[in-house]
Amino acid sequence: MNRAANESESGNTVDHTVVNEVLRLFREHGDSEYGGEAVTQLEHALQAATRAEKSGADSSLIAAALLHDVGHLLHNLPDDAPDQGVDDRHEELGGRWLDHRFGAAVTEPVRLHVAAKRYLCAVEPGYFSELSQPSVISLELQGGPMSDEEVRMFEANPHYREAVSLRRWDDEAKVVGEQTPPLEDFCPHLAAAVS
Ligand SMILES: [Fe+2]
Ligand SMILES: [Fe+2]
Asked: Which domains does the chain have, with CATH numbers?
């Protein structure tokens, strides 16, 4: 891979190739609708990442929040695929793309963010009733609330708490017209998460 690297202020070598790939993906595909919601993929990603940053999350989890739906930017299925009964498996697609670029602190919360919705539906009274309609539709395709056994297995995953935090930011990140910092402001977190 042709990598662009230079020295950061701290003296560490920073690889900008991945950061540039992320910027290009959002520039080329970020305008698409976010799965039946009234915000775009880029707006949704920025709102989730902004919530992660305000919560004091580290750079890896902020990067995960920004990139949790990167799988939606990597396929050519229609935005309303769930309405047509199609689960795009975007968490797996995104996880595989991230595997080559980031460590487990980024990839695993992303890979688990759909499972975290199924988990919260099982363990938290009232969570389901707060879900948006598109999220309810996709929940059915994704397997519905977890069984007791699935809950136990999920809680055994070392990344499950981060995945649950990410899921809550994800659920909130659908506010029409909300102002956020621009994508470029998150580049330092991406660079820190890569290196
Ligand atoms: Fe998602
Ligand atoms: Fe999302």
From this structure: 12-171+182-194 (1.10.3210.10)
